[in-house]
From TrEMBL:
This is PRP1 splicing factor N-terminal domain-containing protein. GO terms for biological process: spliceosomal tri-snRNP complex assembly. InterPro entries: HAT (IPR003107), PRP1_N (IPR010491), Syf1-like (IPR045075), TPR-like_helical_dom_sf (IPR011990), TPR_rpt (IPR019734). Residues 1-139 are annotated as: Disordered. One of its GO terms (cellular component) is catalytic step 2 spliceosome. It comes from Zopfia rhizophila CBS 207.26. Residues 39-50, 103-114, 122-136 have a biased composition (Basic and acidic residues).
């Protein structure tokens, strides 16, 4: 082994200076004690460096001992302190009024530029943020559907979940196991000793021994006794519920437990004695540390009161009042705890007021101790002598006065004394005569020029006097005055005040406030219309319909030709107004926007629904003058005449439409009307004429085929559908009609071929895939249907139609719920799937769950008619009459148009002219 020393234990080289190579010489750290050590001097450094250079055969370095270079100028202006400015900035910053005004102007310009496109910028940022969150979802969002699905897991499924295995350090444990499984040769002595050590005695001595031996007999007897006690205790408590945790038994009375808990909560509960003692020690220490701490005395008093020691609590708070004579909280607490003895409480209140005559709280507490009105007035007047500016004392005195004339006199004195109290001025005006009230409000306005509440009260006064034309003028003056005083409220606060006036019945004042202040801080180039529409929506959400009506009225005055605003106003009146108000709004709307087709149609429809048929016809006649040749207006007029039973007039409208506005829709409407009236030949003739002009209209081919089916000419119908599929290969309904008529004729192979051709023309279409599955299922070929369903779900995994078909018709009853859970994970929001889940719960007699899922379906898509059909069928069996009528009214408002069952009933020519309620009931009977 080498005799060379370790590097760290070797002595340092001669002339070694730690840190010399990196320039860290002569330093002292924080760990050094005593005065700082001096580093080597310059001469010593020169000598050491020269000696080392001589040993290495090199020239001496120039860092020490070389000729000193001329130091660069350290006083260059470039290295001046930036805070010590010279030259141009040596005079400092003289900030005057002009600089302040310039800063303010620049700030206003910046705010205006920022506000100009704020809405669009915020919308863009919101869209970008949502896009980012959608592309980069958080972990909790990724598992949101799984967490939501856990709510439907039953207790049996929870119990069937396997235990999670510990995979941490699996490789390490396997290696340790292999190491432990190794065997080594052991000496015979070790084996013999182990054999002897494993021998056990069959008898145990009952002697306790000298303390060095363990008495196993005593331990066993004690354990047996303890176990017997626990078993006896558990067996004796049969009335309760036994719960064994860590060898203990807890008995809970299920009937008395809740009662005791409610009583404890109602009484505030009783603190444990240990907690009270601990808190007492802490509070006593705090009070002794600071004798003038009033809240500390109050806390200790309440602690003693909580502990039931009322006498001690009174002594504690009395001492607190002595030590803290100017602590209001101590005196208030002392009065409260002695309130049962009114005489003592009055004495305490008198002493407190004598020491603190300016405390309003003490005066109010003393007033509350008085039993008679005269006594209250006496104490109140004494309080006002010491505190004439107290609004609370004036209000107390006025409230205790019954005579109206005396109340007015007190108000006059109060407003003269406290001239800056809005509440006193407004209350004074309310109890005065209208003529005097106007003078009072004028005086209040002069006393408090920045008060907006006074102006609102003045506006309400004009409304009470019936001078409705002055309300707007008063609010206009209010805005000018408040702007001059720089006391103008924000626009949102004015809307809040308008809603308060609406709640109190001052509708005209509410409208005046909105009209005068809604444009505040909004420039003409801002998106005012969108802002005001949002304001109206917010007011409607809060139930303030008069305010929303006033907002929309102002918006209409500014944007009289905006169809969006008129639609919002009409919708408000339709939902929360009267019929006459709705028709009046629509009349103004069509006069302001005569070229708006939607407004004319809405006007005519609402007039017809409210029974004003002549008015609806007049509206349509006027609309024809403004929009000649509009097919929607013609079709609406035809619908009105058909519903009224005036079929000849309907035919006349359609004939006019075919001459002035000839479209495939008009011809289709004409053919449908003739089919409804029974003239199939005329309907077929109209259809053929239309197909020659519009051969690509699949609806015309469908109507032609249906006419042949009605005539029992299935071969011609099949040919019509076949021609239609070639003319409009993207029309899946024609393929469906063709396959179904082929299936009815017994040609299942042809029907299957038709659907295959349709799927080639329209790949990944869930309707066609579902129809192919149903065709196999109706033919009795369930395995082929299941195979097709597997392919369909691979192509359209998010189709609620396919999942519903699979769950209800291709799964056994026990597997429907797991498949529904899997479907919900794939398809988050689909009304058809929600209805299927509701039907599953319905079949399991879980009625509340079923009702919840039916409600989800109709809220998600109110236009889905099958959801309403199944829900109403469910309510016919398990719902009340009130619930059924409520759902029926919602259906009439929603007017659904889609759904397989719903469309099969609503579009049946036999059901033409029937209302929504009749269609619903027939669809309920058809639903299976």
């Amino acid at each position: 082994m080498s005799g060379r020393r370790d590097f760290l234990s070797m002595p340092a080289p001669e002339n070694y200076v730690a840190g010399l190579g990196r320039g860290a010489t002569g330093f002292t750290t924080r760990s050094d004690l005593g005065p700082a050590r001096e580093g080597p001097s310059e001469e010593q450094m020169k000598e050491m460096l020269a000696k080392r250079a001589a040993q290495l055969g090199q020239a001496a370095p120039s860092a020490y001992g070389a000729v000193d270079k001329k130091d660069e100028d350290e006083d260059d202006d470039r290295f001046q302190d930036p805070d010590n400015e010279v030259g141009l900035f040596s005079s400092g910053m003289n900030y005057d009024r002009e600089d302040d005004e310039a800063d303010r102007i620049y700030q206003e310009v910046d705010e205006k530029m920022d506000k100009r496109r704020r809405a669009r910028r915020e919308a863009r940022e919101k869209k970008e943020r949502e896009e980012y969150e959608r592309n980069n979802p958080k972990i909790q969002q990724q598992f949101a559907d799984l967490k939501r699905a856990l709510g439907s897991v039953s207790e049996e499924e929870w119990a069937a979940l396997p235990e999670v295995g510990d995979m941490t350090g699996k490789t390490k444990r396997a290696r340790e196991a292999r190491m432990n499984n190794r065997f080594y040769a052991v000496p015979d002595s070790v084996i013999a000793g182990s054999a002897q050590a494993g021998q056990l005695e069959t008898s145990i001595s009952a002697d306790s021994g000298d303390g060095t031996m363990t008495n196993f007999a005593s331990i066993g007897a004690a354990q047996q006794s303890a176990l017997q006690v626990r078993l006896d205790s558990a067996a004796s408590n049969n009335a309760g519920t036994q719960t064994s945790v860590s060898g203990t038994s807890t008995t809970v009375d299920p009937r008395g437990y809740i009662t005791a808990l409610e009583k404890s909560q109602a009484m505030g509960g009783e603190a444990p004695v240990e907690d009270i003692n601990r808190a007492r020690v802490l509070l006593e220490s705090a009070v002794k540390t600071n004798l003038q701490n009033g809240p500390g005395h109050v806390a200790l008093c309440r602690l003693e009161e909580l502990a039931g020691k009322i006498h001690t609590a009174k002594k504690v708070i009395a001492r607190g009042c002595e030590l803290c004579p100017h602590s209001i909280v101590c005196w208030i607490e002392n009065i409260r705890i002695n309130r049962e003895q009114v005489h003592n409480a009055k004495i305490i209140a008198a002493n407190a007021i004598k020491l603190n005559p300016k405390s309003i709280k003490l005066w109010l507490a003393a007033i509350e101790l008085e039993q008679t009105v005269a006594g209250r007035k006496k104490v109140t007047r004494q309080g006002l002598d010491h505190n004439p500016q107290s609004v609370e004392l004036w209000k107390t005195l006025i409230n205790d006065t019954e005579d109206l004339e005396n109340v007015r006199l007190l108000f006059a004195k109060a407003t003269e004394t406290v001239r800056l109290s809005e509440e006193l001025w407004i209350s004074y005006a309310r109890v005065s005569e209208p003529e005097n009230a106007q003078q009072i409000l004028n005086a209040a306005r002069k006393a408090i020029p920045t008060s907006w509440a006074v102006w609102i009260q003045a506006c309400r006064l004009q409304e009470q006097l019936g001078k409705t034309e002055l309300t707007d003028r008063v609010m206009e003056r209010a805005v000018k005055a408040l702007v001059k005083e720089d006391a103008m409220l924000k626009r949102e606060d004015w809307i809040t005040q308008a809603e308060i006036c609406e709640d109190e019945g001052a509708v005209l004042t509410c409208s005046a406030i909105i009209k005068a202040t809604l444009s505040w801080k909004l420039d003409e180039d801002d998106e005012r219309r969108d802002v005001w529409l949002q304001d109206s929506k917010n007011s409607i959400a809060r139930g303030k319909y008069a305010t929303a009506r006033a907002v929309l009225a102002h918006c209409i005055r500014v944007f009289p030709t905006s169809k969006t605003v008129w639609h919002a106003a009409a919708d408000l009146e339709k939902r929360h107004g009267t019929t006459e108000d709705l028709l009046n709004v629509l009349e103004r709307a069509v006069n302001s926007c005569p070229k708006s087709e939607s407004l004319w149609l809405m006007y005519a429809r609402e007039a017809y629904q409210f029974g004003e048929v002549d008015r609806a016809r007049t509206v349509l006649a006027r609309s024809f003058q403004q929009l000649p040749g509009n097919e929607n207006l013609y079709t609406k007029a035809v619908d009105f005449e058909v519903d009224s039973g005036r079929y000849q007039e309907a035919r006349g409208f359609l004939a006019m439409a075919r001459q002035s506005a000839a479209t495939d829709r008009i011809f289709m409407k004409s053919a449908v009307l003739e089919r409804q009236l029974g003239d199939l030949d005329a309907a077929l003739d109209l259809t053929n004429q239309a197909i020659q002009t519009w051969p690509g209209s699949w609806k015309l081919h469908a109507i032609k085929g249906q006419l042949y089916e009605t005539m029992s000419k299935l071969k011609e119908a099949q040919e019509a559908y076949s021609i239609g599929t070639r003319a409009a290969p993207k029309a899946i309904h024609l393929f469906l009609l063709l396959s179904r008529i082929q299936e009815r004729q017994g040609a299942v192979v042809k029907a299957r071929s038709t659907l295959d051709r349709a799927r080639q023309q329209n790949p990944k279409n869930p309707v066609l895939l579902c129809e192919a599955v149903r065709l196999e299922r109706r033919a009795g070929n369930v395995p082929a249907a299941q195979q097709l369903m597997a392919v369909a779900l691979q192509e359209c995994p998010n189709s609620g139609l396919l999942w519903s078909e699979k769950i209800m018709h291709l799964e056994v009853r026990t597997q429907r719920k797991p498949r529904a859970l899997e479907a919900i994970k794939k398809v988050e929001n689909d009304p058809q799937l929600f209805v299927t889940v509701a039907r599953i719960f319905w079949s399991e007699r879980r009625l509340e769950k079923a009702d919840t899922w039916f409600t989800k379906a109709i809220l998600l898509d109110a236009d889905y008619g099958d959801g309403w059909v199944w829900y109403y069928k469910f309510l016919e069996q398990h719902g009340t009459e009130e619930k059924k009528s409520e759902v029926l009214s919602k259906i009439l408002m929603a007017e659904p148009k889609h759904g397989e069952i719903w469309q099969s009933v609503a579009k049946d020519p036999k059901n033409a002219g029937k209302g929504l309620e009749d269609v619903l009931k027939m669809a309920v009977e058809k639903a299976e």
